[in-house]
Structures are given as structure tokens and as C-alpha cells.
Amino acid sequence: MKETGQFEVYVEVLRAVIIAVIFLFLLWSDRKNDLKSWDGWRYILNGFFFLTFATTIDITDNYPSLSKFYIIGPTVLEAILEKIVGYLLGSILLALGFFKFVPLIADYRREAEARRKAEEFSKNILSSVDEGFIIIDENYRILSANRAFLESAGVEFTEAVGKKCYAVSHHSEKPCYESGEECAVMHTFQTGKPHNVLHKHISSDGSPYYVEIKSYPFSRENGRVKSVIEVLNDVTEKRQLEEQLAHSQKLEAVGQLAGGIAHDFNNIVTAIMGYAKLIKKKNASIEEAKKYAEQILLVAEKANSLTKSLLIFSRKGTLEVMPISVNDIILGMSELFRVVVGRKIELETDLLDEDIMIMADKGQIEQILLNLISNAKDAMPKGGKIKIKTAFAKLGETFIKVHNLEPAERYALITVSDEGEGMDDETKARIFEPFFTTKPVGKGTGLGLSMVYGIVKQHKGYIKVESKKGIGSKFYIYFPETNEMPIGMDDSTDKFFSGNGEKILLAEDDNHIRRLMENCLTDYGYKVVVASNGNEAVKVFCENDDIELAVIDYIMPEKDGLEASKEIKKINPNVKILFLSGFSDNNIEREINDEIKNAELLTKPILPERLLNKVREILSKEKELTSLDSDKLH
Ligand SMILES: Nc1ncnc2c1ncn2[C@@H]1O[C@H](COP(=O)(O)OP(=O)(O)OP(=O)(O)O)[C@@H](O)[C@H]1O
Ligand SMILES: [Mg+2]
Fold this sequence. Notes:
Elements: H1 2-32, H2 37-56, H3 75-128, E1 132-137, E2 142-145, H4 147-153, H5 157-160, H6 165-170, H7 184-191, E3 195-202, E4 208-221, E5 224-234, H8 236-280, H9 286-313, E6 322-325, H10 326-341, E7 345-350, E8 357-360, H11 362-378, E9 384-393, H12 397-402, E10 411-417, H13 425-430, H14 448-458, E11 462-468, E12 472-480, E13 503-507, H15 511-523, E14 527-531, H16 534-543, E15 547-553, H17 561-571, E16 576-581, H18 586-595, E17 600-603, H19 608-633
Parallel strand pairs: 7-9, 13-14, 13-15, 15-16, 16-17
Antiparallel strand pairs: 1-2, 1-5, 3-4, 4-5, 6-8, 9-10, 10-12, 11-12
The structure holds adenosine-5'-triphosphate and magnesium ion (MG).
């Protein structure tokens, strides 16, 4: 009995401790208030605890062994009090628990409603838009797809989900990247970043259509992309519109360009025709004919520099670079500048005493100056002053690298400044764009400064502009200085070297050029056989076994120059080849060197002296070699 009494004491103490702990916990957790949904359950569980505790108290049992632990009254009263407190606390806690749940339930309902609405919203968007959306997992299986995608692929939702994306989109058994196409999805899986590609598809009726594909990471696990969302957009119509726009812009540009140069060419052709008619006059003396021929050469030179500028503009032209003095060019053009600017404008030149030498194509530098001067003149319709200045400049190493300049100790700096209308920042940003002009139609082509830019770049120089609206503009041009000295005017360029009856095959498709070269070669002692295309060249070569040199135009109809010369070389490996080309392009030179041994290249325009001298040089080499060989034999 005593042991049972002691046990009950322990139970009673434990019970008191538990109640105290529960109270303390409730108090603490209520203050912390971070258990939220658990709150309700906590109160309810505690409420039940107190209620069961209250119901288990037996009032009839007087707990005799416990009487000494109670402070007040008899044990029955204590039991009643405990029961009342237990029921009261239990009910209060249950009620509290219930009320804690009420807002939670409301919150839950609100969240569920918001979720439902958001899902419906995205579903509605995805099914209303024209873009196809698909979600793809790591194994390239479709997890979900929207209406637009299903319609374009011509499949039902159930037919698409779970299938490989390439099987549904391309009816292919291999992933796109294995078929050589760029795969946006693979890219996103690998890099974790969005990616865009453009795919060309062929529709069932055989017409091509273009699909722009964008992929974005959709879900991740431990930083790895687990699924990707792919957005597919048919951009065929957009591309067609862009192509049409580009085409019409190109046509407009060609129209402007043609308009601009037609006028100059017309003058040139009129002058050439006029002088040629004068020569043809029966009674024109040799002296007169020579004088007219001089004039023809002068205007033809202009035509030559015009086409050269156009080629420079298209970045295909050749530069005839040599050491030249910047001051000399400016001084040499001062008369022309004065004519260009007119009487209203004052022209001031401020040139360095020391000569500045640069490696440049004289004609092109003149072109730059002429364009800058004529722009400056246009900017000053009411007159003003144009200043041309030369100076030396030093440039930093980084600057040289960044702007891809030819490294040099010093640079020649030419500045052309005016007091004209100036430019706002928007105009200034676009002036080097081809066809950008603010001048009325027929007045400006917008090619002037883009040519200037092209020429400066080809010379490994640098150009910049400063301009203020209403105040004026200043153009700065830097060219690397050279230490090479100018070559004196070589008389030999005027000398025409003759032939000794050697037979030459001349293949050129342009009738006029072919006739000119044929006349020139025949007049200077060569036997010439001609062809007007690649096939004919090979045929003519087969018919003449004593041809020593083939002069072949690089671009010709039917069979191009390179192909024709390869066949000719097969027939006779000893024959020499001289190619003629409209452009000097590193690729052409490389191609020729790769394909044909010891072939030479001459770029157009091919004037008689250049042709004759080159032909002589090639044939003499041949002779020297042959004599060396025969020396060795003896
Ligand atoms: N010195 C300048 N002052 C003010 N604006 C200029 C000056 N130089 C060029 N511009 C602006 O840059 C534009 C482009 O010049 P650019 O020389 O390329 O073509 P353009 O002069 O309009 O035509 P084109 O050279 O064929 O006659 C000009 O239309 C003009 O708006
Ligand atoms: Mg201009």
C-alpha cells in the first residue's frame, strides 16, 4: 500500500511537470508564432489532453496518501477543482484550436482558388496564342504541349505526350543535332541558358517555311536543368517581308548609285567619243591625233578612278600603294579644291614644314580629300572657311590595337574643318553608313563618307569626327608614317616591250577588251590566237601546239579561267599562265597559287604598257630558265 502511495506521488509530480511544460510551451510558441498550421493542432491536442485528464479524475477516491502534498482543503475539493480546471482548460484550448483553424481554412481556400485561376489563365494563354509551346524532359520526351503546337504538328495531346520531340516535330528517328541541325533544347540542357535557332522546314506541299525556336530552362534539380520549355514560331511571312524590304532598299540604293555615277560617266564617254571622232577626221595630223589621244587618256583616267572608288566601296578593289607625301597631295589638289568650293568659301591650308610620308594609293587619298571638301562646302551654303591642316600625331598602343591601325612611331594627321551647319549626335552616328544622306534626292548619294571610311580602313588608318550643330565639323584622319622614300617617276612605265613572234593564247569574254589587247600584242610583235570563253580557250589551245603563254581572264562564261588553265596545263605543263582579274582578292591569289604552279596575276584595268611589260617579263623568265637548263645539259 505504501509503495502504491509512493508511485501515485510520482505520477502526480510527473503530471504537474507535464502541465507546467505544456503551459510554458504554449506561452513560448504563441509568442514565437512561427508554427502556423501546427498551432491549431497543438491547441486541439492539448485541449484533448486536459479533457481526458479531467475525466479520469475520480472524485470518490480520496487519495489518502497524497493529502500531505495539497496545500488547501480535503482531497475531494482538490479533485473537484482539478476536474473543473481540466474541463475548463481543455474546452478553452479546443475552442482556441478551432478558431486557429478558421483563418487557415479560409487562407487555404483562397490559395486554392488563386492557384486554380492562375492555372486556368496560363492554360488559356497557352491555348490562345499562335506560338507552339512544348515542355521537354532530359530524354527529349514531350511532357506537355499547347494547342498551337498540336495543330501545327497535326497530332492529338495524347499522341504527343511521352513521345520524342523530334519524332513528333520532324517525323525523324534521330535527334535534330544528329541530323546536323542546331538543337536549341540540347543547348539549354547543356548550358542552362535560353537559346534561339532558326530551322528551315519543308511543308507537305514542298514549300519551305521557317520556324524560329526559342528554348528556356523550365525546371531544375540540384542546379541541373531537368526540363526545357520550347517556343516555336512560324516566321516565314516575316522573313518574306524582310527579304522584300531588303530587296526594295537594295534597288533604291542601286538607283541612287546609278544616278550618281551615270552623270560623271556620261561626261567621260562624251569626251572620249568627241576626241575619237576628231582623230578619225581624215585630215587629223599625227600631232593632232597625239594631242587628242592625250585628252582621251586624261578623261579615261577619271573613269578609272571612279570605278576604283566603287570597288573600294565594295571592298574589292586593289590599292596601288607607294610612299607619298601628304603635303604634296594637298598642294597638288589645291587648284581643284578651289574650283570645287567656289568663290563664296575661303580655303586655308596649314601644312607642316616637314614632309610627311605615308604608304598610300594617291588617287584614293585624293578621293578622301575631295569628299571631305565637297561635304564641307555643302554644309556652308552661305559661305565660310574650310581649313586643311597636316600634323604629326602619336597614338597609344592600346588605341592602335583596338582600332586595328598599322603600328607606327608617328602618324600623319590630316584635319579638314568647316564652319558649316554641323551635325546632331544622331546624324553623326550614321555618317559612315553607305547611302546615309541628309541631302535631297539627286543631290547626295550618301556614299561619300562610306567610301572615305573604306579607304581609311584599307590604309590601316583611323578617322574620327567632331561636330556641333550650328558651329561646324572637323574630320581627323590618321595614317601611319612610313620611312620608305618615294619612287621617282619611272620612265620605263612608258616603254612598251616588244615580242619576238611568240604565240600567245588570249582568252577574254569582253569583246572590247579582247580586241584592244589583241591589237596591242599583235602590234608589238606577238602572234595571238583568241577565245571568248573557257571551253573555247581549251579548244584553241589544242589546235595550236606552239603556244608559249596563255593570257586568261579569271572569270569567264561556260568554263572559268582557273578550270580552263588546269586543262591547258594538263595538255602542256610547260605553258605559262597569266590571269587577268577585275579584283584583287587574297582568295583569288591563294586559289591560283594552290591550283597552278608559277601562274601570274594582273589586275584590271590593264593598260597596254602593263600588259606588254608583264608578258615580256614572263616570257623572258621562261627563256632564262630554258637557257639555264640547256647550259646544264652542256
Ligand atoms: N562637313 C559636314 N557638315 C555637316 N554634315 C556633314 C558633313 N559631312 C557629312 N555630313 C553629313 O553626313 C551625311 C553623309 O555624307 P556623305 O558624304 O556620306 O554623303 P552625302 O554628302 O550626303 O552624299 P554624296 O557624298 O554622295 O554627295 C551628309 O548627308 C551630311 O548629313
Ligand atoms: Mg558627301
